[in-house]
Design brief:
This is Nodulation protein U. Keywords: Signal. Pfam families: Carbam_trans_C. Among the domains are: 130 residues, Nucleotidyltransferase, domain 5 (2-Layer Sandwich); 119 residues, no CATH class; 68 residues, no CATH class. Helices cover 39% and strands 14% of the residues. The protein has a 5-stranded mixed β-sheet with strand order 6-5-4-9-10, with helices on both faces. 36% of the residues are buried. Bound molecules: 2-acetamido-2-deoxy-beta-D-glucopyranose (NAG) (2 copies).
Length: 455
């Protein structure tokens, strides 16, 4: 299997004589790019058949077949796609059908807000120049930020802005101030092209204000995003339950925005029986006749999962496929034994296994608690480090988090996800809050609060 990647794509699936190749192409110039890709492929492979798979349909396949609920409402949303930006599907047995395509693009708006904040992008000079450029005194004005936005998106790592903004939002305080235009701004579909890059002056003033103002802007953007998404999903659940002769088992979030663990947790608590039973953050859960039983997000909800979707569009899996460790193996695996011998490496099991590891992380015999890198088997398929390529450290206090962030060249505010033994979940969260792919973020029981749990 081979795959390419770019944002906002349709997926092109090439079936060759021996194997299946999947690749993607840009939606904006769909036909031209498809053609270009096809031409470069046929130089190397003899292709029997080409298939074009819609972007969100592909996300939906990955989300639904990853767990195989008997039936589900599948919500796929992200900043771009040849078939929309916020779609819903109903999965029943082995089939899925699209039931809605909403004119919402919260992913694009969310990204755009992240681009305005220098602690997110690291582009301080650009931010200063941008803020000096406009007269933001007049509230009635909408400023055209397209050029700035495009510039930021080129200079910073485009695909990481949203994830950083999510962590950054936790640094903001609820100042009680709202920005009147924000709800409307976040809700506006980016398909209304004439308003694509326009941002209300009042929002820009917050983005160009001091750090407190920037951080609280991040916080209210996340709040607005939560409300928009949960509101849309609620009305989808209502409409779908009215028109279906059976009740749905699950709710699946997929697409790049399904990496937003804050929104995911809210959806879990608000819309599912399992979540409603443990909800601490949401006062009002949906009435039980509208709720589904369970919630799921696949290990690779964003575009990194699309290649597998190409395969599943041709043959859906007969049983649950564990995708999360299907990434690349070690490039130099054949040299492993020799290097281990050279470094006089000793097996962990020989030293005492997990108990030894715990003592090591706790700093036994050392002046400083170590950070231990783990590499085992094939790497993760999807963006989360789930123990095959992870850094282990003792989660106590913020010092270790700061060291981890320095080590990874990450911003100071970025959280790390603590790993918690199954048998301790209840003590830490008050219920068995499973999150095998880091897709939700349960609040901790107060006195167990870990200083660097996801915000
Ligand atoms: C998927 O999300 C991760 C985390 O935000 C990001 O690093 C990665 O580039 C994304 N991949 C694609 C193909 O969008
Ligand atoms: C610390 O030293 C003791 C005694 O040498 C040894 O048994 C133990 O395994 C060491 N612990 C670690 C984590 O190195």
């Amino acid at each position: 299997m081979l795959c390419g990647h770019s944002i906002g794509t349709a997926l092109v699936v090439a079936l060759t004589a021996q194997r299946i190749l999947t690749l993607e192409c840009l939606s904006r110039f769909r036909h031209l790019d498809t053609l270009r890709l096809q031409i470069s492929y046929i130089r190397f492979f003899s292709v029997r058949e080409w298939r074009l798979l819609d972007h969100h349909h592909a996300h939906a396949l990955i989300g639904y077949f990853d767990l195989q609920f008997p039936s589900a409402l599948i919500v796929s949303y992200d900043g771009e796609g040849n078939d929309g930006t916020f779609n819903a599907y109903v999965g029943l047995g082995r089939d899925i059908v699209r039931v809605a395509q909403l004119a919402l693009d919260p992913g694009y708006r969310y990204n755009m807000m992240g681009a305005l904040l220098p602690e997110v992008t690291g582009l301080w000079d650009e931010h200063q120049m941008f803020c000096a450029h406009f007269d933001l005194a007049n509230d009635a004005v909408w400023v055209d930020a397209t050029i700035f936005y495009d510039q930021v998106m080129v200079k910073s790592t485009i695909l990481s802005v949203a994830g950083k903004l999510m962590g950054y939002a936790a640094t903001g305080e609820a100042t009680g101030t709202t920005i009147m235009e924000l709800p409307c701004f976040v809700r506006a579909s980016s398909r209304s092209k004439e308003r694509y890059g326009l941002i209300p002056a009042r929002i820009l003033r917050a983005a160009c204000g001091d750090l407190t103002s920037q951080r609280s802007l991040a916080w209210i953007v996340q709040e607005e995003f939560n409300q928009l998404v949960t509101g849309a999903v609620e009305s989808l659940l209502l409409r779908v339950s009215e028109s279906l002769p059976f009740s749905l088992h699950g709710l699946v979030f997929t697409g790049g925005c399904a990496l937003n663990v804050i929104t995911n947790q809210l959806a879990f608590e608000r819309f599912t029986d399992r979540g409603a039973a443990v909800s601490k953050t949401i006062v009002e859960v949906l009435p039980s006749n509208l709720r589904v039983k369970d919630f799921h997000v696949p290990p690779a909800p964003n575009d990194s999962g699309l290649s597998a979707a190409g395969l599943w569009s041709i043959a859906s899996p007969q049983q649950h496929q564990q995708l999360q460790y299907l990434g690349f193996g070690l490039w130099d695996e054949e040299a492993l034994e020799a290097s281990a011998a050279e470094w006089k490496a000793v097996r962990l099991s020989f030293l005492g296994g997990v108990d030894y590891l715990a003592a090591l992380l706790a700093g036994e015999n050392r002046t400083r608690k170590p950070i231990v890198a783990v590499v085992r088997g094939r790497q993760e398929f999807g963006p989360r480090a789930l123990g095959h390529r992870s850094l282990l450290a003792l989660p106590e206090g913020t010092e270790i988090k700061d060291r981890l962030n320095r080590l990874k060249f990450r911003q100071w505010y970025r959280p790390v996800a603590p790993m918690i033994a199954d048998e301790d979940l209840e003590a830490v969260f008050g219920y068995v809050a499973k999150s095998p792919y880091m897709h939700v973020i349960a609040p901790t029981v107060e006195d167990e609060r870990l200083s660097h749990a996801h915000p």
